[in-house]
Amino acid sequence: MDFSTYLKNYPTKDGYFGKYGGAYLPPQLVPAMKDITDAYLTICHSSQFINELRRIRREFQGRPTPVYHCETLSRRLGGKTQIYLKREDLNHTGAHKLNHCMGEGLLAKFMGKKRIIAETGAGQHGVAVATAAAFFGLDCTVYMGAVDVAKQAPNVARMKVLGTKVVSVTEGQQTLKEAVDAAFADYLENYKDTIYAIGSVVGPHPFPMMVRDFQYVVGEEARAQFKEMTGFLPDVITACVGGGSNSIGFFLPFINDPVEIVGVEPLGRGTKLGDHAASMTYGSEGVMHGFNSIMLKDENGEPAPVYSIASGLDYQSVGPEHAFLRELGRVKYESATDREAVNAFFKLSRYEGIIPALESSHAVAYAMRRAKEMDGGSILVNLSGRGDKDLDYVIEKYGYGDDFADFD
């Protein structure tokens, strides 16, 4: 496939990446999604909108975020292969999520919406939406599974301080899927004055396209920065994959380059169904939350129980564009366990002074594993978020990392 024209061809006007994607909607939401699509396709080519978004990124978010060479970590892993990080943890609010939330906030103002709603797992998307709502003067409600509310108390507090109503969802597994279900139910009732800021490249068209476009800046910056730093492109780029927003935005600017691209899924406690959330590795095709992709199913074909130490990765499906890129053979998908992620969490903290989010730690874990296998070259990791939100949970479960060498 000629990837030089990829972005012009996908998604199709109906929102498909090959057979994946689309918009599987109740009839009453079809006009609402058409309005969002029309509005987005109008403003995405508007110089006024683009310039305002660039101003916000520069003056409010602190973009561009830097690329950083992990010299000590690389040396301790053997020294031949060099690991670099795209520091999205330094983006305002501490993760990549604000990149699309500020874009969606601008879209909401353009459409005359008064309210913005969202789901969140790790809480980083919730904080980003709450931040965008405060910035643009919108009412905001965020749905969060009760399990994640308990695990991510610092982010819950941040959302509330920003003026957002946080709804704890107690149905089902009380995690990300149930939060999405609750947010969709709200949107179904209130779509006339509300916009739903979906937290990843999932959901019905146009959300996978919109979120991808807003996150494209991550890889665009990283590609230029890495080449300026080293004179070369990286040999491997990698990022964690739950729904897949940080990774798709990071991957696509490299899509036509001679660079190996690897997404890293959460293998959790192991390969048994219910012990992981590695949908690309163990799932099959299915429709969930308004889009067709690869998903983990139970014996009845329904969304299966999932688990990950990282609340932002415990989702039964994955963005449709990821499924398509794997089918094309352009992106490879690997996995990392909880144990590997915790090991990477402590090693990056101790060796580089950077406390990563548990989500991002999965990609760091893969880079560490891969660096030991490669005979030279470089790996660029998208460090999609910082670990402040995870500290209480990690300390409770693993202490302060004094024995982190035991996690090897």
Q: Write down the overall geometry.
A: globular
The figure for the number of domains is 2
Main pleated-sheet profile: 6 strands, mixed
Number of strands: 14
CA distance, first residue to last residue:
40 Å
In the CATH hierarchy, the third-tier topology of the largest domain is known as Rossmann fold
> Level of helix content?
40-55%
Strand order of the largest sheet: 3-4-14-9-10-13
Alpha plus pi helix count: 16
CATH architecture of the largest domain: 3-Layer(aba) Sandwich
Structural class by sheet pairing and helices: alpha/beta
Given as residue ranges, the uncertain stretches (5+ residues, pLDDT < 50) are none
- Using the CA coordinates, give the radius of gyration: 20 Å
SSE order, as H and E? HEEHHEHEHEHEHHEHEHEHEHEEHEHHEH
Look at the structure and give the mean pLDDT: 95
Strand content: 15-25%
Task: Specify the CATH class of the largest domain.
Answer: Alpha Beta
In short:
This protein is α/β, with parallel strands linked by helices and 408 residues long. It is built from 16 helices and 14 strands.
